[in-house]
Amino acid sequence: MQLSRKLFGTDGVRGIVNQTFNPEFAVRLAMAVATYFPPGSRVLVGKDGRIGNAAVYDAVLSALAACGSKVYDAGYAPTPAIQVAVRDLGFDYGVVITASHNPPEWTGLKVVLSDGIEAPPEVELAIEKNFFENRFRYMPWYNIRSIQRYPLVLDHYVESVKEHIDANMIAKHKPKIVVDGANSVGGITTPRILKELGAKVLTVNCDIGYPYREYEPTPTSLTDTAKIVTAVGADFGVAHDGDADRAIFIDNRGRVIPGDISAIILASYVVEKNPELPKRIVTAISTSHFLMERNAKSKGIDVVWTRVGFINIARKILELGGAIAGFEDNGGFGYPPHQLARDGGMSAALMAELIVKKKQDLASLYESIEKPTILRSKVPLPDREKGFRVVEELKNRYSHAKIIDIDGVKVITSEYAFLVRPSGTEPIMRIMVESWNAKTAEDVMNALKSEVEKLIMST
Ligand code: MG
Asked: Same domain for 410 and 285?
């Protein structure tokens, strides 16, 4: 299914502003989207804080209206805010103009169905068919509906997160939290959520505009933010990506915590907070195998692996009838009682509640997790098909080991494990290596990286 899509990747359509994603492309794509849904469908549209969105956003609104949708314009809004509002407020679908964590010259479009979950591949394929066959349903002028501003989305989102959190407890202890909004939409909502819950909030990069740091929250892009966390003596820091569905945490000692480790910390807390939920974590194959074996499975929490892309995690949770958490290693964490979506604001609120309830600082929680060495790297990949051929070759070469091949190839031995996977959002091959022995992890990464580079050249 994934192979046959030409525009949609793991997480919507993405392209570079005024190159592959110019206004003309945006209009045709949005017309293809609106044509897919029945005439008169109510669509909620939002955008992240990218400067380049000015070139395409209004074009998308007009195109949706031209092809029969009733458009509600939320303006700047985190992806999870659009998702929960679509689900709760009776919209037929949602559209978010965002390229998530991609570099600043990118933008993108993703479609959310009425349940608030990302559109599945079959819907994306039908939209692509409209796009490539120029099947656009132009409405007669008298049936075109006006475009309405809809700023209530942010209020709804903030309230919906707060409903799941014990504000009295947070207000009593007043944790000090640094929020880094990546100069995008997380800067609007997360400080508000935490302040209204009673925390003391210090904002960094929370004005919308030219991004001070990369949208992707990583130890490198968060160097300055981490210094601020320790300088002001904060209990923790939380940093978002461009559309604030991710939350990466910085502990009170200034260490940037990998997303899968903060997810384990949060998930272990949800087991106590929501004992009614099935003791199950659903996570993407890109999460560390050893980490989950040691910190979840050994504690009686079942671990279910899916393909990368949160839609796969959300659907699996629905199919299995619930979970304590669904997450990716990149800081995308979903708390099922709120919504089946990655949600940076919800994650930040849960972490605030966790540290005051457990009376433990984040540094000691971080230290309590048994952590293998996890190394992540990437190699340029000129063409995705080539990436799939490299994966097939690696499966042959490592057939003696345990292999999981639901997405790319994960090889598991007693000393190390690795994952090689063509990215669904960028022209790169992602490589992850893990081991309980740091030297082994480094050696395997060095050897594997050059093996993959050679295979890309030769296949
Ligand atoms: Mg994102």
From this structure: no
Q: Does residue 131 sit in the same domain as residue 72?
A: yes
For residues 127-142, give the mean pLDDT.
97
- What is the domain-level CATH number for residue 222? 3.40.120.10
Per-residue b/e over 373-386, b at no fewer than 16 CB within 10 Å?
bbbbeebebeebeb
Domain that holds residue 428: 375-458
176: in domain: yes
14/75 Cα distance (integer angstroms) = 19
| pLDDT tens digits, one per residue of 365-395 | 999 999 999 999 999 999 889 999 999 999 9
Distance linking the first and last C-alpha atoms of the chain: 23
CB 65 within 8 A of CB 16: no
Q: Are residues 247 and 98 part of one domain? A: no
Rounded Cα distance, 405 and 212, in Å: 38
The CATH number for 444's domain is 3.30.310.50
Q: Is 255 exposed, middle or buried (0-12, 13-18, 19+ CB in 10 A)?
A: middle
Cβ proximity of 453 and 379 under 8 Å: yes
- Residue 146 bears catalytic tag: no
CA 224 – ligand 1 centroid, Å: 21
| C-alpha 85 to ligand 1 mean position (Å) | 17
Same domain (yes/no): 168, 223: yes
Dump pLDDT digits (tens) for 13-28: 999 999 999 999 999 9
User: Chain-wide mean pLDDT for the chain?
Assistant: 96
Q: Vertex 264, ends 403 and 422: CA angle to 5°?
A: 40
CB atoms within 10 A of CB 133: 9
Ligand 1 centroid to Cα of residue 360, in Å, is 29
What's the rounded Cα separation, in Å, for the pair 304 and 280? 7
| 250, 306: one domain | yes
pTM above 0.85, yes or no: yes
Rounded to the nearest whole angstrom, what is the distance from the C-alpha of residue 443 to the centroid of ligand 1?
31
Catalytic residue among 100, 160, 288, 435: 100
